[in-house]
Amino acid sequence: MLVGRFSNGRETFYGAVLGDTVMRLKDPFTAPELGESYPAERLTTLAPVRPGKAVCVGLNYRDHARELNMPLPDEPILFLKPSTAVIGPGEAIVHPSQSERVDYEAELAVVIKKAARRVSVERAREYILGYTCANDVTARDLQQKDGQWTRAKSFDTFLPLGPYIATDVDPSNLSVSLYLNGTRRQHSNTNQLIFSVYELVSFISHIMTLEPGDVILTGTPAGVGPVKPGDTVEVVIEGIGRLTNRVIGEAGL
Ligand code: MG
What we know:
By secondary structure, this protein is mainly beta. Helix content is 11%, strand content 42%. Bound molecules: magnesium ion.
């Protein structure tokens, strides 16, 4: 099932996407009962979750490690992005004036279904609602300047998510691509992940409790590069869909 969050201008709700129709969902986390249906074109698609936290993983693709000439890490490197960075499909990424170099990073995002604390790798799957596309937008110059990553990763609009949460895909074998102005710049497969989705859920849950709606960004493959105002970036993941966002300057152009 593809689960989205929608607005009809009056209210916001979850829905199951069935072709051109959206069927209202009572609560995809606990009671996914279908209700009223709407023509999709009458609704605005929002970010599919409002996470309490987004836990992100640094270097986690073998091809990206090769590209950077870096040894494979023996444990995941974690950082957080704030919930205020989240935007939905079609919303604009704002290129902040404090940065000279803002990069895209296409990533598979895991959406947590229920509270996870000290979960084993074997049981991690039970705690996952599904998967969506993410763009871990990064002010690369500030990341290098600061040494720690909070400022570089946390600007408002630096976490596009969507369009939908796919609940039935196999996270171990999905193609992940990024298109910049229609040209493919990143292309890999989650079979290149150094730490699998289930290993990440387990590892993180031994540090912090993961709550319903929290997301885990699983790292980006080779081919990261910069964006500028006027660009359009699209993250495309097999079985999930296409997350499209354009980039604007602070003046809104
Ligand atoms: Mg990243």
